[in-house]
Amino acid sequence: MNRMTIVFIALMTFWIPMNAVADLLVAEGQQYQRAPQEIAENTLVTELGKQYSTPIVVIEFFSYGCVGCFKLDPLIEAWRSKLPANVSFLRIPVEFHAEWRNLTKAYYTALNLNAFDKIHVQLFDAIHSNKLTSASDDAIREFFTNHGVDGKDFEKEFDSFNTNRKQKWAKSVTRAYRITAIPAFIVQGPQGIFVTTARAAGSQENIITVLDHLIKLELGETAEVAQVPAPDSSVPATPESSTPPKKED
């Protein structure tokens, strides 16, 4: 691992929000980072970009178990519905904790059963209002059936080859992009690969402005530095979920 990659990972983990009174300058190294060449040349990363016909792909790394992702989701849902036709958006669930594995499978099961609109917001709400206190197979099955999904369809899809393949793929892609904290966003396009978080942007609202800036940057419509409104210091930055520390040998 080269020095640039180490610096990139450190910044991903220890970004500090800028809560200035004046307008913020959105700049590389502050509200966002450029991914090092090692990441840009990773086979999984390049293959993902080629899967889409659009020049720009925005990726949200998230988990239903992440409280910051839960709080940010309404803004992201509203924002993604207005993205231009030349920008693709996808979510990739992460597994920083063992119990999140079934939440990853729940996400892909909902997509594969065309039940996303029945499950996505409702699953976030259930987990973070303590209505769903377990992510066991049985608990997830009961949740799906309570929200209009046939039990047999769920059982067939939840443990299907396709769902397990996507779960493993998501785990590999998370490693490929060196994601160590969520919610995290990748903007990937002709000008490079950029990463940002709500914490780096300074507020939940500012992450939308930073993402819009990065899309314009990819399209060559803006300079690398732009002004955005300062975050409201009375509104706390979105909490992040990070990879648990590794035990020392």
TrEMBL record:
GO terms for cellular component: periplasmic space. It comes from Candidatus Berkiella aquae. This is Thiol:disulfide interchange protein DsbA. Residues 33-216 form the Thioredoxin domain. InterPro entries: DSBA-like_thioredoxin_dom, DsbA/DsbL, Thiol_disulfide_DsbA, Thioredoxin-like_sf, Thioredoxin_domain. Residues 226-249 are annotated as: Disordered. Its main location: periplasm. GO terms for molecular function: oxidoreductase activity. Residues 235-249 have a biased composition (Polar residues). Pfam families: DSBA (PF01323).
